[in-house]
Design brief:
CATH class: Alpha Beta
Number of domains: 1
Structural class: alpha/beta
Radius of gyration: 16 Å
Strand content: 15-25%
Strand order of the largest sheet: 1-2-4-3-5-6-7-8
Order of helices and strands: EEEHEHHEHEHEHEH
Shape: globular
Distance between the termini: 12 Å
Number of strands: 8
Amino acid sequence: MVAVPDEIDKSMIDVAGLTAYLARPAGGSSAGMLLLPMITGIGAQIREWADELARSGVTALSWDPWEGRPSSDETPIDVLFGWMAELDDEKCLADQRRLLDHLFGELGCSRVGTIGWCLGGRFALLLGGRDARLANVVAYHPTVPGEPAPNHTVDTAEHCALIQAPVLVLYPGADHLVPPESLHRLQAALQSRATGPSMVHVYPGAEHGFSSSTRHANPVNAEAFALSWPQVMSVIHTTTR
């Protein structure tokens, strides 16, 4: 049973010029997770998940894809999609590895994994292929379209095959952005690995982004998240302790 801290520390911090949200048990912990958000960036939803991880004993550091721009919770979705189209794969991966360095260094974590949602789910798979330090890779409904976006310059399936850590992918059966063929490519790449368990969970009828509370008016999404989240937490705790 995981011990629950009496309190957590949480704040927006600066990491070598990068904006990040930090939530951790008071006094820190050796277990850490790098959170890679969906299009809403470090909004209320990602902070809620980070705080929950911290209350369970895990230091959670959240990457800000929008680098301190105005609150993503208050920014129109069309503006967010415009920002997403400007993201550079290599720059994002370099920034994420700097945050990993901070988790292993200043924050004192000895085992660190990564979890991402939507655009962050794709980056979790890419980062997993780039950084062998990761203890796990969790990708909620990763945005890997059948036809790569113009700024998707790094191949996701190719990087899946390079991941050494255990991988958990959570795929919604009614994903309108990611066709089943994309999932099959990712799954084939993961299963080609000589090391690292591959766990691919499919939730029939669930929609892209089903983990977000904003999607839970649809009971299929709410039920998919209610079933998946405890499994995600179990993978995180098992691999970072």
